[in-house]
Write a structure and sequence with these properties.
300 residues, mainly alpha, 14 helices, globular
């Protein structure tokens, strides 16, 4: 082999090695950034307005990173959680508050919230499907048959993804009463929540048990009475973080049964339990409980 050809081969080999080695630092930095963004989901912020303003940027950045790192389960869970919380805290709850004075604007907010919930559900379910191929089809089959397919199982590390997927799914269904196709998905969403509950009933300081109560009260054949044990269990699981669970029981049990005294007592307990807490669920629960308390006369 002539010297020129040898040099050319060496140069090509060196270039190939450089390109291959460049991938490793890039992937490492991408994963570091993804993990850091995912960890920010647990950060506290005492100003809800600032949390809302920062939320849009955070969600877009997280989603962009997830597209580059599609196998990052922690990031997928964080993205799903972020879209679900944003839809509930800043869109759906706001729609309820402005309904009386601006029903058109309230409806626009609910439609936007439904799209956010769908986006959250899509990210979480895509990761679950990646981890457990065939899960989506199995959920649809179990849901359509209204059965409890005992062959379906979730691993403990999948519970967070399943919770946010089911919560977002339920949120979308609740805002899509004029879409029979979406409402018909309730059994499948319930089945996913049941799988998560079977794997870790105390997930999210009572959040999953509260979701089970909400689904139980909403499903065909369910009722406020059959949902009650889930709400009580959620409060027990939550301990000092019981504000959101108390709010869920007020809205999911006391309000449907027209128990005004219980409703107001639970709301006051939720407000007291969230005092001094700066995590987003507690702040949102406190603000909503205060608003609902002011609306009690119109609700009963």
């Amino acid at each position: 082999m002539c010297l020129r050809r040898k040099l050319r081969c060496l140069a090509l080999s060196a270039s190939a090695l450089l390109l291959l080695s460049a991938c490793s630092p890039r992937q490492y930095l991408l994963r570091q950034a993804s993990d850091e963004i995912a960890s920010q989901a647990q950060a506290t912020e005492e100003d809800l307005g600032l949390a809302k303003d920062a939320g849009a940027f955070y969600l877009k950045l997280s989603e962009a990173l997830l597209r580059q790192d599609p196998g990052n389960a922690k990031l997928a869970e964080s993205v799903a959680a972020g879209f679900t919380q944003y839809a509930y805290a800043f869109l759906a709850c706001e729609a309820d508050r402005i309904e009386a004075r601006s029903p058109t604007e309230a409806q626009a907010l609910r439609e936007r919230a439904a799209r956010m919930y769908a986006r959250a559900q899509r990210h979480a379910k895509a990761m679950l499907e990646q981890q457990t191929p065939g899960l989506s089809a199995a959920l649809e089959a179990a849901g359509s048959a209204n059965s409890s397919n005992t062959s379906l199982r979730l691993k403990p590390e999948q519970v967070g993804l399943a919770y946010w997927a089911a919560a977002a799914w339920g949120g979308q269904i609740s805002l899509s009463k004029d879409s029979p196709e979406t409402v018909a998905q309730l059994p499948a969403a319930l089945r996913l929540a049941q799988l998560a509950y079977a794997a870790q009933a105390d997930y999210g300081a009572g959040a999953l048990a509260s979701l089970m109560g909400i689904f139980e009260a909403s499903r065909a054949g369910g009722s406020a009475a059959t949902a009650l044990p889930y709400f009580d269990q959620a409060i027990a699981f939550a301990g000092p973080q019981a504000g959101p669970a108390l709010l869920a029981k007020a809205e999911g049990h006391a309000l449907p049964t027209q128990d005004r005294a219980g409703f107001e007592a639970l709301l006051r307990q939720a407000i007291a339990a969230t005092q001094g807490r700066h995590d987003l669920p507690s702040q949102v629960a406190r603000e909503r409980a205060q608003w609902l308390l002011s609306q009690a006369a119109d609700l009963f």
